[in-house]
Design goal:
Elements: E1 9-12, H1 16-27, E2 32-35, E3 48-50, H2 58-67, E4 78-81, H3 84-92, H4 94-98, H5 108-115, H6 117-127, E5 134-137, H7 140-146, E6 154-158, H8 161-167, E7 175-177, H9 180-192, E8 197-201, E9 210-217, E10 227-235, E11 241-248, H10 251-264, E12 268-277, E13 282-289, H11 296-301, H12 306-314, E14 330-332, H13 334-347, H14 352-359, E15 363-364, H15 374-391, H16 397-401
Parallel strand pairs: 1-2, 1-4, 2-3, 14-15
Antiparallel strand pairs: 5-8, 6-7, 6-8, 9-10, 9-12, 10-11, 11-14, 12-13
């Protein structure tokens, strides 16, 4: 292990992205801690978990710990937001944390604007970046106001993804509805949970129309590198999280991504996601995350060590990434992709032979590594446990009472 090049790091939340950062910086000799990271990430040999006690919103619990006496030994560490909760904490406690820790320079209003999906879409429209049709909904009466304009299928999208995930863990990031009755039902459920939502047109087509642009914008507003990738499959298809990705180079994606980032004033890491609308051929914004994405292991494998780049830039060291990277490199979440294939086969959209041929390439696995196998083992055990729980017969009310 090389000598530590600088101060330790504390990762704020995250799962696959946090694991990739810990592995990159850990191999570089940096001591890495993590608050609120996924349980399987805590098993990595490159990360030491921090589990602060307390009640309340996670961002407040984390901040109280980092600003309190129990975090004395972490003073001077570099804080990296690897989740929406982490971004919220840094923006909310920016001044207090800056006296004790180091973190990347950022514009809090721009960061929070990208957390809010409605603000993101409004910023894109102002920047001239195409979006799906969308409608602001502040009350049920707004649904009636827009009723004749709405198009189905329609996405009921929470404005703050991390709040939705906290209230509805283990489900997709939004609700897909097909008629007015389903829309009212979904809206009422989310509103009852205290969630603000918007309505978004669902762009038709396959997952292969999805693509993204990743960059890092320095304090002067200049991107330090450009990177694009595309989606091959999601689980569930057409609505879930990406399970099969491929690196490419698409100048059009870069151009529209930079237009958005420059207009809203983002600094640091950003990942802008788009979908190609085959009806008019335009790239349309899906969302923009002002942090490391879950696909960062593929970025690193392609030759762009983004975690190291961000770390060194944050502590004031000059660091440049290569001007090119490996295209055609793929990243696979195997168990999720199996489920995606089964769903596509039931629809008649993908045969067994076609699926096998699609996998006959060099693969990057985001969680399993021979030199750090514990996270993959822990994640597999967790999933098997959940599957076993779902398979158990439900007890009758009389047995439950007993």
């Amino acid at each position: 292990m090389p000598n530590a090049p600088g101060p330790p790091v504390v990762l704020l939340g995250g799962d696959t992205n946090a694991l990739a950062i810990a592995r990159s910086l850990g191999a570089f000799g940096v001591t890495v801690h993590g608050i609120g990271v996924a349980p399987y990430v805590e098993r990595s040999r490159y990360l030491t978990p921090i589990r602060p006690a307390g009640s309340g919103k996670p961002e407040d619990v984390w901040a109280r710990f980092l600003l309190g006496p129990d975090a004395q030994r972490h003073r001077g560490s570099v804080l990296i937001a690897t989740s929406d909760i982490g971004i919220t904490m840094l923006c909310r406690y920016q001044a207090e944390l800056a006296e004790l820790y180091t973190f990347d320079k950022f514009d809090a209003s721009a960061q929070l604007g990208m957390l809010d999906k409605l603000s993101t879409y409004e910023g894109a429209r102002s920047a001239g970046v195409p979006t799906p049709l969308f409608w602001r909904v502040d009350s049920e009466s707004d649904i009636e106001t827009w009723r004749n304009e709405l198009v189905y299928p329609l996405i009921v999208k929470p404005l703050l993804s991390h709040e939705y995930k906290a209230r509805f863990p283990g489900v997709t990031k939004f609700r897909l509805v097909h008629d007015h009755t389903e829309l009212l039902s979904a809206y009422r459920e989310l509103a009852a949970a205290g969630l603000a939502v918007m309505l978004v047109e669902k762009i038709p087509g396959s997952d292969e129309q999805l693509c993204s642009y990743t960059t890092y914008v320095d304090s002067s507003g200049s991107p330090t590198f450009d990177y694009t990738k595309s989606m091959l499959r999601r689980n569930p298809p057409n609505e879930g999280l990406g399970c099969y990705h491929i690196t490419d180079w698409n100048p059009e994606v870069r151009e529209v991504g930079q237009r958005l980032i420059e207009h809203v004033g983002l600094r640091g890491v950003s990942v802008s996601e788009f979908i190609r609308d085959t009806r008019d051929g335009k790239l349309k914004l899906i969302e923009c995350n002002a942090r490391f994405s879950a696909a960062v292991p593929l970025t690193v494998a392609a030759g762009l060590d983004l975690p190291k780049h961000v770390y060194l830039r944050t502590i004031g060291e000059h660091h440049e990434l290569p001007s090119d990277y490996t295209t055609g490199l793929r990243m696979l979440y195997l168990s999720d992709d199996v489920r995606s294939f089964l769903a596509l086969r039931r629809r008649g959209e993908l045969s067994l032979g076609g699926w096998i041929r699609s996998l006959a390439h060099r693969q990057t696995f985001p969680i399993f590594r021979f030199d750090d196998p514990a996270p993959a083992i822990a994640r597999a055990a967790q999933r098997l446990g959940k599957a076993a729980t779902r398979a158990l017969p439900k007890a009758s009310p009389r047995r439950q009472a007993a």
